[in-house]
Amino acid sequence: MLQFMKSNRMYLLFVAIAVCAFRTLFAAESPVPAEALYQTNCASCHGAKLEGGNAQSLVDAIWQFGSSRSHILRNIKYGIADFSMPAFESALSDDQINQIIGFLFDAEKTSGVTKPPPPEKIYTLDYEIRVEILAQGLDVPWGISFLAPNHALVTDRSGELRQIVSGALLPHPVSGTPKVLHEGQGGLLDVAVDPEYTENGWIYLAYSHALPDARNENRPGAMTRLVRGRLKDNQWVEEQIVFEAPKESYLETRQHYGCRIVFDPNGYLYFSIGERGVGNHAQDLSRPNGKVHRIHRDGSIPADNPFVGRNDALSTIFTYGNRNPQGLAVHPVTGKVWETEHGPMGGDELNLIAPGKNYGWPVVTYGRNYDGAIISDSPNKAGIESPSLYWKPSIAVCGIDFVRGSLFPRWRNYLLVGALKYEEVRLLDIKGNRVLHQEIILKNAGRVRDVACGPDGALYVVLNGPGMVLRLTPVRDLNEGP
After folding, report:
1. Rounded to 5 degrees, what angle do the CA atoms 15, 18, 19 make?
2. Torsional class of 381: left (φ above 0), alpha (ψ -120 to 50), beta (otherwise)
3. CB–CB of 299/311 below 8 Å?
4. Contact (CB, 8 A) for 51 and 60
5. pLDDT for position 107
6. Inter-residue contact 260 to 273 (CB < 8 Å)
7. CATH 1.10.510.10 holds for 174-394
8. Cβ burial, residue 320 (10 Å; 0-12/13-18/19+)
């Protein structure tokens, strides 16, 4: 018994020493306050008071490379090589990065600084441009299309279709529009006006549609759907379903619906559907997601679609391997269709699409997974189309359109590209299938969801946060002198 007690006392003594050692160790490695982490790792570039220095201010209400916590975490963790932002992946844990982000958000709130309004003028390499707010007070505007030079339709992801007439947003949304599933990235998406609208009055809408006979009442399956209808006294009437995916293809995910709608010179209707967050579906021709589709305007299938007659493929599919295409535009001269799609972390793409081609996702990509993991060892592979341009880091590329008309003659047939994450409108000079030059013409006005060249030749920019539409017109050509 005595021997046991001695042994037990020695054991207890050992435990006490070990506990003290662990306490000392943990005290030495106790969490560093967020402000101290910032001062050690960030202040030399962004300023001790977050006021900016070698890099931009962090309390001016402008987040140049994405304002969400996830965007900021990725930027700190993996860096932004194009802007000399180093990666802190080895120096900081995710928890420490999140502490710094929390410190930044708290500092922004107490700074009293709010995001400035869009500039009244901007200067590009070619033009001095006037910027006007055409409409504001929208929630999350998504797409814009024109019935006439002074009459535009704007979709709001919440489910509302709004009219802008003679520079004024009508006070009431169009009634009778389809019910949308407004969850996650879903809702009322694109709007497009029929090329023969003055004769037939058709308007097309794309939206996230939920199954009425839901397999899961709390989380019904959903998929992108297209309808067309007409406007009468601010009412949506005579609706027809143009495209509806097979019910078995509906998914319970709530992201990557696409969807843009365009018409080529032959009157074919093209529309895009994202892979809905299920990457391998983009390579499965029996599924609608992760594809660009082509149909007739009444919903019938063109006989020369690339997969017509195959039992293992949907006959509407025009291209596949497209991750989340939220930009479609038709070149005014060639009539060819261009597409932009979101990559994961990096690897946003601009593609010239061609029938039956595979654009790679998720077999090849220039981006990485959101946890930093490599998705593909090489961005190129035989039998897969390479993009005409890719953006790395990702700019969160969205709506696109070509410049037409006489207002911007130096930019005629250039491509406008909207970017959500970097709040940009870019201008691309394209020859053939190559991008020769790109320029940022608008920055930090808001998340650019869509861009359009209107019938009047002006450029229109649809912004999320703030929910508004801008109109850009030239003041003078800078190449012609004062």
Report:
1. 85
2. beta
3. no
4. no
5. 82
6. no
7. no
8. buried
CATH domain 31-111 topology: Cytochrome Bc1 Complex; Chain D, domain 2 (1.10.760)
Q: Which residues contact 81 (CB under 8 A, 6 or more apart)?
A: 393
d(CA 122, CA 131): 7
Exposure string over 213-247, b if 16+ CB within 10 A, otherwise e: eeeeeeebbbbbbbbbbbbeeeebeeeeebbebee
User: What's the gap between Cα 462 and its chain centre?
Assistant: 12
Integer Cα distance of 215 and 196 in angstroms? 40
Q: Which residues of the chain have pLDDT under 50?
A: 1-29
Question: Would you state the pLDDT for residue 24?
Answer: 41
Query: What tokens were used for 343?
Result: 């990559």
Residue with tokens 């008071």: 49
- Residue 30: its pLDDT value, please? 52
Phi, psi of 146 (to 5 degrees): -120, 135
CB-CB contact of 448 with 423 (8 Å): yes
Helix (H, G, I), strand (E, B) or coil at 480: helix
Each domain of the chain, given as residue ranges in start order, spans 1-30, 31-111, 121-145+397-482, 174-394
Backbone angles phi, psi at 130, to 5 degrees: -90, 135
- Which structure tokens are listed for 56? 């931009």
pLDDT at position 81 = 65
Q: What is the pLDDT of residue 382?
A: 95
Residues facing 273 on adjacent strands: 291
Distance CA 262, CA 61 (A): 35
Give the pLDDT of residue 70. Answer: 81
Structure tokens at 326: 């939220």
Query: Among residues 75, 36, 35, which one has the least CA distance to residue 55?
Result: 75
Mind telling me the catalytic residues? 256
One-letter amino acid identity for 478? L
The string of pLDDT tens digits covering residues 5-28 is 344 444 444 444 444 444 444 444
Amino acid at 241: I
Identify the bridge partners of residue 164 per DSSP, sorted by sequence position: 152, 169
Q: What is the pLDDT of residue 27?
A: 41
- Could you tell me which of 190, 341, 363 has the C-alpha nearest to residue 274? 341
- Do the domains at 31-111 and 174-394 have one common CATH topology? no
Q: Are residues 343 and 367 in contact, defined by beta-carbon separation less than 8 angstroms?
A: yes
